[in-house]
């Protein structure tokens, strides 16, 4: 639909109503990004079918390829700018949504307590639970306002790559649950008039009763800190490629950077969601003590955490050049590599996860001797034929002197591959 609208021209881009694209308002930023993407897709598919080429370059395959690549790179950068504006506007709106969701949860809790109190009567435990929810919601709302430019209450769980962090989200959920449980005990303790009831509530905080939930809390918080350290060290050591996203998405909790489902993340979220649900029910049933998470369930959470951490250690890898050969078209004679020839660089890991967009692909560079060659974008209908994750095609520039020359790829994440030596003849 977006592509068809771009072909038809759409509404006036200068209008400040539903078609605003200037980026001055959230709706305009979103609409502007959508239209920029649609226009780019139309341009890419037209160039892929050979349309839109000027007559000055149409006679030369290399000239037309270079011209198309430059045009697409400029258009892709415009799309990226629109995407960044849309992401900033989306984050600015998110704090209101998170605050609304938090207070909606408080209302749901009130309705549930009111319905379950029919016949059983209202108790001090219900009052303490409701006050605990109000205090937590108030704290989250205040945090949302102070961090309204960074996503509101979700700001602490947004990673440095502008994606939702699975480890931080899980740890934050456990922190909120334990904080709510302690506030419930504090409320009941403040309302208790009998010394035996106060002693029983204080005993509810004994480690023997909450050892399981305390252990799980310590492990998931430690995992959140450790994962950040591991990812940071692997990025600095060029063993992991990270590309910043335009904005966080809920799917980030279950997928890798490229948007594919990740087993390590999915099982970690699923197991902890089940354990959190169990702990919340135990808190509702026994509001006089910390949730007594059974050791069997706690061990399952610990195994899940270990699997998640192992997955973080195993993901990624440094890009590698395996071979470099002269590109040969149908009918060409076999020959050595000369200046002006195209070469195929074969390997793995050239396109980092999350860098499939044209603006990121246009940043890829191949060093051929002392010369930096930008990898040309070769469009096909629905995507790009070059560059690919395992194959790059670039020309050998005329400034390269004949002889033994090193070839090295620099990916969109700034990671360098190994050097591969080729022979360039006159």
UniProtKB/TrEMBL annotation:
UniProt superkingdom: Bacteria
Gene3D superfamilies per record: Immunoglobulins
Keyword set includes Aminoacyl-tRNA synthetase: no
Protein name per UniProt: Integral membrane protein
Transmembrane segments: 100-122, 128-148, 169-191, 211-231
Keywords recorded for this protein, A-Z: Membrane, Transmembrane, Transmembrane helix
InterPro entries on file: Ig-like_fold
């Amino acid at each position: 639909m977006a592509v068809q609208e771009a072909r038809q021209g759409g509404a006036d881009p200068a209008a400040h109503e539903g078609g605003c694209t200037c980026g001055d308002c959230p709706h305009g930023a979103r609409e502007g990004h959508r239209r920029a993407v649609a226009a780019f897709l139309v341009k890419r598919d037209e160039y892929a079918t050979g349309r839109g080429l000027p007559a000055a370059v149409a006679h030369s395959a290399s000239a037309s390829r270079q011209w198309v690549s430059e045009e697409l790179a400029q258009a892709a950068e415009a799309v990226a700018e629109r995407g960044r504006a849309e992401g900033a506007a989306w984050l600015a709106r998110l704090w209101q949504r998170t605050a609304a969701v938090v207070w909606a949860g408080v209302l749901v809790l009130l309705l549930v307590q009111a319905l379950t109190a029919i016949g059983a009567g209202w108790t001090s435990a219900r009052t303490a639970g409701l006050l605990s929810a109000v205090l937590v919601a108030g704290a989250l709302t205040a945090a949302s306002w102070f961090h309204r430019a960074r996503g509101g209450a979700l700001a602490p769980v947004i990673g440095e790559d502008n994606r939702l962090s699975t480890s931080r989200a899980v740890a934050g959920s456990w922190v909120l649950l334990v904080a709510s449980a302690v506030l419930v005990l504090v409320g009941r303790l403040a309302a208790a008039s009998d010394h035996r009831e106060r002693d029983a509530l204080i005993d509810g905080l004994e480690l023997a009763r909450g050892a399981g939930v305390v252990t799980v809390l310590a492990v998931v918080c430690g995992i959140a800190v450790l994962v950040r350290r591991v990812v940071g060290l692997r990025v600095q050591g060029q063993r992991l490629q990270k590309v910043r996203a335009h904005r966080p998405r809920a799917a980030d909790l279950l997928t890798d950077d490229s948007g594919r489902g990740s087993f390590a993340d999915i099982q970690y979220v699923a197991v902890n969601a089940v354990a959190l649900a169990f702990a919340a029910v135990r808190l509702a049933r026994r509001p006089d003590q910390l949730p007594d998470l059974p050791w069997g369930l706690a061990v399952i959470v610990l195994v899940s955490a270990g699997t998640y951490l192992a997955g973080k250690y195993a993901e990624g890898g440094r890009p590698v050049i395996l071979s470099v050969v002269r590109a040969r078209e149908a009918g060409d004679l076999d020959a050595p590599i000369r200046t002006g020839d195209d070469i195929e660089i074969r390997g793995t890991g050239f396109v980092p996860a999350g860098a499939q967009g044209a603006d990121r692909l246009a940043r890829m560079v191949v060093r051929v001797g002392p010369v930096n060659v930008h990898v040309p974008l070769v469009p096909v209908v629905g995507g790009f034929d070059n560059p690919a994750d395992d194959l790059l095609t670039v020309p050998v520039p005329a400034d390269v002197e004949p002889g033994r020359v090193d070839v090295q790829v620099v990916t969109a994440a700034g990671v360098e591959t190994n050097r591969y030596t080729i022979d360039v003849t006159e």
